[in-house]
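Let us practice reading a record.
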Amino acid sequence: MCSSELKGRVHSFETFGAADGPGIRFVVFLQGCPLRCKFCQNKDTVPLRGGTEYTVSEIIKKALKCKPYMKASGKGGITVSGGEPLLQPDFVTELFREAHKNGMTTCLDTSGCLHITDYIRELLEHTDTVLLDIKHIDDDKCKDLIGISNKSELRFARYLSDRGIDIWIRQVLIPGYTDNREDLIKTRKFIDTLKTVKKVEVLPYHNLGKDKWYKLGLAYPLEDVPIPTQEQIKEAKDILEKHKI
């Protein structure tokens, strides 16, 4: 099969993403995720067999329509998110190859939760920037929040740093789960060990995705969790975004 005809399973697209990497991005949300995050905002992306199949060439054709805006923004390009894009590494690799051939930068939005295989190593060779979600710095709290250990995602972060790949760190701020000051300080100390972090973002928790849980007949785990206050957001940003500890 020609690489441009390789198919991936896609949930949806966003044509003018401004918050998913440098510049204006064409964002591809892939289908399938191994995590069970209590705060998941896209629960409908979790099943592996959902979504719609697209070829690499079909997606590149869509993205090229946005290229004038990408170019005007400076470093725009294609971002692949999810779900979890590391579940389809061969497809994302070919998509990123074609993106580079067409003058678009590449950005991978991932939890880094999978074992680093040769397929994933190859994918990262064609990735300009990784948006990495650090779910929780405390392993036990991470298991409670997303269903698995944090060891893989922290190992993934170190791998990116060692390979010189640009990283944007993201942390969702959830009252009662990820807002503990000591945990935030530990997270910042871990970030300080990485050599290629270009940006750190605190993403305030919201519950706008809970209707997707309801439509799937599922109870929303954080039903009684409030959105963070401005004071909580400021404290987290002061620790994570501004200083070395």
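A brief commentary: The two ends are 51 Å apart (CA to CA).
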